[in-house]
Amino acid sequence: MERLTPQAIIDSFSKKLGDGFVSGSVYEREVAVKKNKFRSLWVEVKKSAFRDAVEHICHLQKYPHLAIISSSDLGADVELIYHFTIYYGYHLEELSLGLRVKLPKSDLRIPTVTDLIPGAIFTERETQEMMGVEVVGIPDGRRLFIAESVPEGVYPWRKDETGPEKFLRVLPGRKPKGEGKKG
Amino acid sequence: MAVGETKKATYTIPIGPIHPALKEPIQLMLEIEGEKVVNTDVLVGQVHRSIEWLGMNRNNPVQTLYLAERICGICNICHPFCLAMAVEQAANLTPPDRAEYIRVIAAEMERIHSHILWAGVAAHEIGFDTVFYLTWRVREEIMDLIEYIFGNRVTKAVLQFGGVRRDITAEQLPRIRKSLDYYKSIFEHLRRIFLEDRTVRMRTRNVGILSTEDALKLLAVGPTGRASGVPKDVRQDQPYSAYADLNVKAITPDIVTGTVVGDVYDRIIVRLLEVKQSVEIIEECIARMPEGPIMSEPKVPRLLHLLTDAAGEGVGRVEAPRGEDIHYVRLEAGQSTLATWKVRAPTYVNLMAVPTILKGMQIADVPIVFASIDPCQSCTNRIVVTDKATGRKSVVGYEELHRLSVEKTKELQR
Question: What is the domain count for chain B?
Fold first, then answer.
């Protein structure tokens, strides 16, 4: 398969997704003595174009490697980043591709990608239990890490009232969170 | 589904949560038909320690670096290495070139000891305890070297954001060369034991097969993926740190046998050759290592101040002994902790291949097949077995399972 340059990949996203494409950038840094390039791509898409974007990645690379979905609580939104790698198997050719999608807290739902990438199941289950993002169409929606005894509606990665703070015990001799700490 | 039924009986794994050799207790639900494994369910999260939460809420970044070291007793260079790269990318720090080489030397030493440790565990799983003792004695050489260079056998605390905390001096080089020569001299011996011995071959050939397509679909990484013919190695594909100066090639089993089967035997080949490769990488690093400082910001308070002010995000990817390790970090200006920290260890994805590789295997093969992806070993300590014919549930303890495995070896030797 023909390998595109990082900029051409971003252009292909914008062409393919049209309005659904928000932004894209290339990160480059030179490493060690020989100053070879370490490159990664960041692409942000709208939620409506998310499935198309993943399908487009599957066109760029048969069996793209989905390393992990990371999620951040940004206050009003939850940001998911799907960390893909493409063009692996060749010296210095591989590119990391972070596919970013923002979900408003009022509608925390994202379609599953397990039909395209079966190995996405663990990270989708984890995102579901840790961030409270509903993965629509997930084949196995059980909890992955959190014990069954933890009540519903507690999401450890959130920074709002659904976070796990109320389950914390302040040990003797320790200050509660926030005291004596510089901001 | 019988797997669902067995969930009624829950067990607490008695080993862990922290043990130098075991990463995380885990439960396997095996659905069996007679002797054959029909289906497997992997239940993780038995010792979820909320490490990411601590990094995002309690610790400052430098404390988090030491916490990252404690994610795993074996990969205690890979995790801080990964985190340091992610934070350096986010905060725009550049470590000096000499530090990059020391990081790579430390990471390769870790790979040597991890792979040899695994080889011993694998030998033990098939009841070949003589080899288990031999390999672990061989492993002591690298552990002693690690202690000599970095001051400790495990949790070396070598990494710091923007560099390393310990230099390798000229006086230390002869001792490093001595250890590397030892491994070169013993390699042929280990190769004969693991690749030519009839018993090892019988227990590992065509056992626990993961096809190339399944490896790609289930996102297998590291030796598990490479043994299935996926030439994926971060050190080759997207070289980081001093690996960018070296020409590392991903090792697949066809180098030795000409074909890729994707079984346990192939995983042995890959790990064995990687030990040799690591020795060569360390030698090359020592030869090429530039002179200069080892830290870009030696004062910790100033470093913390710099990280508090920094805003940005970064991804660190490191080829750990078990496969690709990835950390994602987001820094917010004015926040003294990491705003987001996501860790993905290689076993996380390799576990998804477990149901596939166990399918159709006998119960006696479970220990070696499961061990072949090099997960935390405490996993096999307790397995719930449901007999599909009778619906009877029973718990097979580690000793019982080990006995079955040893019996199978003896039967094959007859």
Answer: 2
